Amino acid sequence: MSQKQKNILLASSSKLFNSLATLLQQSGFKVSKCQDGAQALEIALKTTPEIMVVDTGITVLGADKLVQILRSNNKTDLSSIFFVGPEGEQITGFRHQVDRYISRPFNNEQLLAEVLTYFNRKEKSEQLGQARTEVEGDLKQISLPDLLQIFSLNRKDGVLALAHNKKKGYIHLLEGQVVSARIGRIAAEKAFYRLLLWDYGKFRFTPGNPQTERHIEMPTDQLLMEGMRQNDEMLAQMSTFPAEEKLLELAVPMNHLPKGLRPGTLEIIELIDGETHVSHVVDNSPRSDYEILQVLRALLEKGVLKESRDDNPGSGDDSLLLTSEEIVAIKDFFGEGDALLEETSAKLIILTDEDSQAGAFLQALQGIDEFEPETDFLDGRGTLSLGDIGRLEISDKFHLRLFLLPASEESAPFWRPFCHRLFGVLSLANDTTLQNAENYFFETAHVPVAKYRDLETFNGILPLRRGDRRGVRRLLQYFAVRFTGLENEESLL
Predict the structure, then answer these.
(1) 126 in a domain, yes or no?
(2) Mean per-residue pLDDT for 28-45?
(3) Residues 160, 11: one domain?
(4) pTM reported for the whole predicted model
(5) What is the domain-level CATH number for residue 377?
(6) Domain span at residue 169?
(7) 159, 210 in Cβ contact below 8 A?
(8) What are the strands of the beta sheet with 30-34, ordered from one edge?
(9) How far apart are CA 455 and CA 168, in angstroms?
């Protein structure tokens, strides 16, 4: 990090940031503190801090009003604000990719790490913006939205090449504005929105005239906002959308379609010729992935489309969630090699700190024939808390219990008793909130932990989509490797 001392302003009406201030000063930052929103505004206008850490419960001048005033002032508009408040709170004026939101209670060292990461990325961004020759980098160190904002501020011309797993994408820029995007034959906004989902991989920027036709007219800042909005909503609703491997077909003849369907809906219906994979429809419509999935979901709910039952040809082991060999290996592991004909079970723990996470997971399992939710959840009377929420009938002699385990620090005494006959652990967290519990089961109980946020391992698998049989099978095979000692291509994802 640069030797120039960075200025950070902490604003809270309580003693919330006292320990954080000490850590920041020990790390070489210049720290200012204030006790209400009016003081925060006055200090920010005078000193122009590079980061403000604001308690959302600040008094005199509330956080929303404080942000509104700061954003309207040229001196403070570029400052990043780290908001600290209750989980789920919405802050008017919050800017994605610029600001941060940290839920209370928070870890001071973790927040310090966030601050250090922010400054490291900012320095890399400044170096990149000044580059006049070809530059390369890692999307983990600087995100695609950050890159595009740098190029926009510096009015760069050139081609940004991106590599993610085995996929490649390209974004063309003219005077800092995105004019074209492409992944294979997918182009324009549709491709750009997909590229925004690539939060790891490599990039290479080659300056110069992009030599391409303009396919995107929307200003880059609006394009980024719309893309991130659609992607956020799509990921939040993913469990309700049909999986890309699903086969769809019309449930009614074309000449009996409901009247008044929108032209865009008809365009999507026309792509369904007999039994058609969801992925084919998504890839061949020029509309954004989110728009298409919304339409397909609505058509399924209205009975215009139906899912084909024959989306996994063959009735052999390929159709099973776990093979007979894997089941035998699991029973052997638990010392039941002589009781293969007796019915037994193992436990799959679901870690969560939010009911909505577990609810979305349960919704995704609907449509999997082997899944049986607890009766209370079927009739809507269940509340998500400690205990069994359902089971997967793997075979007539073996089933997996789905056991919901709250993973807050207060529930830590419950972890050890539930390690018996443990098949694996699935963490539904999108961040490191549940890391202590994850570490406990991996390091102490010695069982594999699958994390939703582990995109390198589970990209395209988690979060599960509704009825995604292949996704469930791959997830279970990830855990089964512990028992078989064998890794096949699917278990390696």
Answers:
(1) no
(2) 89
(3) no
(4) 0.53
(5) 3.40.50
(6) 131-236
(7) yes
(8) 30-34, 7-11, 51-55, 80-85, 100-103
(9) 17
